[in-house]
Amino acid sequence: MRRIIDYIRRKLSIRVSLVVVVFAALIFVAALSFFFLRARGAVREEAINRATQILDKTSLQVEGILNRVEVATAMTEWLVQRHPENSDSMFVYSRGMLLNNPDFYNCSIAFEPYYFKERGRYCSAYSRNIGGEIRTIQGGSDNYQYFYMDWYLMAKLLDQPCWTEPYMDLDVSTNTSEMVSSYCKPIKDSDGHFIGVINTSLSLSWLSETISALKPYPHSFSIMIGRGGTYFVHPDPSKISRETIFTHTLEDMNLPVSDLGHAMQRGEEGMMHTKVNGEDCYVFYKPLGKTGCSMAIICPERDVFSGFDHLRRAVLMMVFVGLLLMLFLFIRIITRELKPLRRLAAEAETIASGKLDTELPELDRIDEIGQLSQSFGNMQQSLVKYIDELKNTTAQKASIERDLHIASQIQMGMLPKNFPDRIYATLTPAKDVGGDLFDFHIRDGKLFFCIGDVSGKGVPASLFMAVTRSVFRTVSAHEEMPNRIMDSLNKTMADMNETNMFVTLFIGVLDLATGNMHYCNAGHDAPLLVGAGVGILPCDSNIPVGFMPDWKYSLQEAEIYSGTTIFLFTDGLTEAENINHELFNMNRVIEVATEALDAREQEPRKIIARMTEAVHEYVGEADQSDDLTMMAIQFIKD
């Protein structure tokens, strides 16, 4: 068996033939389905249409009356609320309800005990339609304390309109009773206090008469049950109101009628094929509006499909003959049409082995196989060209990466590598090369230092950074005031700045003997002073270097106390983003600096290490968005 399967997997013609066989089988199965479903479907559709139309018609009638009950009750409530102090009007409204709606069984407008003091404890305007004549009476008495009835309590406790379960309404005055369902709506005064209930009832006897008359087929019958499963309509009158749909399931819980009963209780709508009284039947069921009742039409299968067996035998014979014929024809045709593919497959395998110059067979065909052969030829030529281009691209990329690596080494080599005990700095570019810079040197007992951030990233920024650092080192070698260093540097960079780049820069000159510091800021982030506390060094607003050659930068001065650390940084610290694109921001920088101060770790290396760890933990797996440079200088007075 394994060999047979492997052989079939290697032969496309056999696999295609098998697909054709299956396809042929599906065609004949479709023919079978056509005849079978045509006959069965027509009968089934007729049954569904008949039952559905009857169910829909009955449901629409019931729902229409329910909607009229709710609308009429709401209108009556509006009238009652207009004259809540006039008890006589309630009898007029109750009677008017039935005059305008003769389908309603009764209407009661009942109020809380002693609401109308002139009428005593009971006030219920009760009207009932008796044989076309409307009788209106006082419905409350010691024998009928309506405010303890379900229809009154449900509306009062739920504080909203509701339909009751069907119940037997007993009229003592006429000694008659009727199965009804009531719509109860609470009445409230202008202050929102509960004062009574409007109860409008419908007789369910007309439903029984309508449903019992339905017989889509000679042996079909209808049933109707309430929420608890009690029969309200059944062909056997002895079961009405005395048995439930689950009565016989007490002996056998697995009876199919149990599923039908549960579905009807849940208020579902649909069709079910099940056994009723031991006979296969189609059951169509649907809830009746908001009454809680559900009706079903039960049609025996023998009525629905009485003439189906003869048609089925004829169809089976026709399908069997047609399947054999189509299987034979399709296998022959497919096998012949797939022969050219064998040669094309063999040549394609040769090309796949690396022999790209192999000649493909020329097929004089314009169908899909011919198009496939032409596509293989085009693919062969494109593949050769692509491989050549890929080799050149790979070589160029390697050269560029090598140049970038060298540029990065040159850039980092321009920055200071040896740091005194009280000075430390780090620079982490976002790309292979970056645009941040820092520098420092000591001359004549003074520390000259700077930190900057060039606009943009990559190679252009790194070149601008290199020039800026070189000019700073040159000018600061013979100039002591940072504002004049900044002026000279700005003029030089602006004159040679044809690409409109700029650099934010902070330059400071710290007297190592006295702690007096002169400084100048050109649009850069203000440094932090970490000493007795953590504060931001006041900095004037100046434009970045490289914009206006004639701009005069302001000079500022500050006294740096012994033990204070000057912490300088670029915006790559405050604007570091996490995966949610939230910034590290200045508040977190101050928090980390404060933690370092509390831990007595304001030494340059320790504070930068703590800040680096904090920003890396915040950023997490997000990519570095900008160059990050930090520089710390701790002043210790000798």
What's the topology here?
Elements: H1 2-10, H2 12-82, H3 87-100, E1 106-111, E2 124-130, E3 133-138, H4 150-158, E4 162-163, E5 167-171, E6 176-188, E7 194-203, H5 205-212, E8 221-225, E9 231-233, H6 256-265, E10 270-276, E11 279-287, E12 294-300, H7 301-304, H8 308-337, H9 339-352, H10 368-414, E13 423-428, E14 436-443, E15 446-454, H11 458-475, H12 482-495, E16 503-511, E17 516-522, E18 528-530, E19 534-536, E20 556-559, E21 565-569, H13 571-574, H14 585-598, H15 604-619, E22 628-634
Antiparallel strand pairs: 1-2, 1-7, 2-3, 4-6, 5-6, 6-7, 8-9, 8-12, 10-11, 11-12, 13-22, 14-15, 15-16, 16-17, 17-20, 18-19, 18-21, 21-22
Give keywords:
638 residues, alpha+beta, Beta-Lactamase, Helicase, Ruva Protein, domain 3, 7-stranded antiparallel β-sheet, 5-stranded antiparallel β-sheet, 15 helices, 22 strands, 44% helix, flat
Condensed summary:
The strands form four sheets. Strands 1, 2, 3, 4, 5, 6 and 7 form a seven-stranded antiparallel β-sheet that branches. A five-stranded antiparallel β-sheet has the order 9-8-12-11-10.
Specify the overall morphology: flat
Number of beta strands: 22
* Distinct helical segment count: 15
N-end to C-end Cα span: 95 Å
- Overall average residue pLDDT: 82
Q: What is the structural class? A: alpha+beta
CATH topology of the largest domain: Phosphatase 2c, domain 1
CATH homology group of the largest domain: PPM-type phosphatase domain
User: What would you report as the Rg, rounded to the nearest angstrom?
Assistant: 48 Å
Residue windows where pLDDT falls under 50 for at least 5 positions: none
Query: Which CATH first-tier class of the largest domain would you pick?
Result: Alpha Beta
The CATH architecture of the largest domain would be 4-Layer Sandwich
**Beta-strand residue percentage:** 15-25%
Q: Helical percent range?
A: 40-55%
In total, the number of domains comes to: 4
| Major sheet attributes | 7 strands, antiparallel
